[in-house]
Amino acid sequence: MRFVLCCLALFHVLLCVERAPAADPVAAVIDLLSRDDPDFRAIGLERIRYAAQGEAATRQFADMLAKQPPGRQVELLRALADRGDKAAIPAVISLLTAAKDPAVRSAAIALLGSVGGGAEVAVLKQSLASGDPERAAAKRALVVLRGDEAVSQLTSVARSGEVGLRALAIDILAERRARAAVPAFVAAATDADAAVRGAAMRALGKLGGPDEVPAMVQGFLEAAAGTERNDAEKALVAVCTDNPGKERSAESFLAIFKATAEADREALLSPLGRIGGPRALAIVDDLLADPAKRDLGLKALTRWPDATVTPKLLELLGTTQNPAEREMLLGALIRIAPLPDNKFNDKQKLDLVVKIMPLCQTDAERAKLLERVNAIRTVETFRFVLPYVDQPALAEPACKSVVELAHHRNLRDAHKDEFTKALDKVIATTKNPEFVERANRYKEGKTWERK
Q1: Same domain as 209, residue 255
Q2: Which DSSP state fits 224?
């Protein structure tokens, strides 16, 4: 029946268009939009999207917005957004000024983002101060807004706008990948406002390179201890390990580290360790050789990003008599062993895990290692873990790793009989209902989505 109605409606549209005066080609569409039947309106909305071209038609359609109830306003706004004609903007801004309905306001904002430009930044900026969903819609609209003028205006907000909006403007510019705004991020990295500093460091973590490292180091040092400094460190490390020009960025950081006053060097040891590399290791070796600075060297070494320091960690672990040092060194080895860092192949990673297990002195240490080993996705890893399911103190972490490995269909299917028996053992052993559910699904060849 619905199909028949659609066909009749389409015929009606064609008939109306044929009969409409040449000077008013949108009359049939306006007539359809005035109908209560949703099928007729749907055809009219499609005509707005893909037919009845021209700015004059757009303005006529947009002028209908003020006369529609909220639900139909949303429908019409979405159709006009798909149409992509800037001629609708004045009517949409008028609607946004008057409308109270959150869905209508969000749809109007989305349209301004999809068809507008720099001239609409001022309007959209006002909505950033509202609550969600309007605020979220405004942020998304400013991300997709076209043109260099939009970037320029957002950069002005980032530099000198209202305090509550500056951090948001920086986040938006970063999401736009607006490299022209990088100088503004640099200036904001040491801003008096913590939210602005944090946003600037996040943005530089995405877009920064060697030239921005000095400002990022200063931003890191000025960040408040705790979450802000941790986030600043992540951004600084990303520039030196992941971003284009990372080798030169790391060299810049090392040069700054060496020239930094002793009081600030201790704070920079954490990012130094996470950046890693041979030159950083030479600095750490010097610290380890000095009894007065050994703790600082260990702090950096135990944050290393890859397995290249494994021999050093094992050597130190074998000689230390200090319980705190031993805990740090073993924790670093447990973290590093299964890392997907391309320094070790899977066999070498598992060999390291096998070597570390006897060095663990408590069930908590052994459990941590068993929980991490499933990152090495091989049948040999599965066979290493499985016997620990029978040890009550280690059964749960072992069960977790068995089901994590079974999650990978290719590995599971290539050794189906072994995995089926192991999953039965997990079901009979674990007290975790999620592990039971996953084991049953994997036995049946089904997938499982992490909640």
Answers
A1: yes
A2: P
Domain-embedded: residue 75: no
Alpha helices in 163-212, H assignment, sequence order: 163-175, 182-188, 194-207
Structure tokens belonging to residue 127: 């909505």
Mean pLDDT computed over 128-154: 93
Question: Omega of the bond prior to 133 within 30 degrees of 0, cis?
Answer: yes
3-state secondary structure of 306: coil
Residues 6+ apart with CB under 8 A from 383: 418
Q: Which strand (E) or helix (H) includes residue 149?
A: helix 148-160
- C-alpha 160/C-alpha 191 separation (Å) is 11
Rounded distance, CA 204 to CA 212, Å?
A: 8
Say what percent of the chain tops pLDDT 70: 94
Question: Please, which residues have CB within 8 angstroms of residue 16's CB and are 6 or more apart in sequence?
Answer: 27, 28, 31, 32
Number of domains in the chain: 3
N- to C-terminal Cα separation, the chain: 41
Distance CA 422, CA 235 (A): 42
- Largest Cα–Cα distance in the chain? 96
**Which of 124, 227, 244 has the alpha carbon at shortest distance from 202?**
227
pLDDT digits (tens, 9 = 90+) for 300-344: 999 999 888 999 999 999 999 999 999 999 999 999 999 887 678
**Residue 189 near residue 218, CB atoms below 8 Å:** yes
| Structural domain boundaries enclosing 348 | 306-376
Contact 310, 281 (CB under 8 A): no
340 with 400, same domain: the answer is no
Same structural domain, 336 and 392: no
Task: Check: CB of residue 7 under 8 Å from CB of residue 15.
Answer: no
Domain boundary residue, one of 336, 353, 376:
376
Backbone angles phi, psi at 292, to 5 degrees: -75, -20
Can you tell me the distance from the alpha carbon of 80 to that of 77, in angstroms, rounded to the nearest whole number? 5
What is the pTM for the complete model shown? 0.81
- Residue 149, Cβ neighbours under 10 Å: how many? 14
Cα–Cα nearest to 129, from 166, 92, 182, 90: 166
Q: How far apart are CA 62 and CA 87, in angstroms?
A: 8
Condensed to tens digits (0 to 9), the pLDDT of residues 431-440 reads 999 999 999 9
* pLDDT band (50, 70, 90) for residue 33: confident
Cα atoms found within 13 Å of the Cα of residue 325, Cβ hemisphere only? 16
**Contact between residue 113 and residue 140 where contact means Cβ atoms under 8 Å apart:** yes
Nearest Cα to Cα of residue 273 among 244, 312, 317: 312
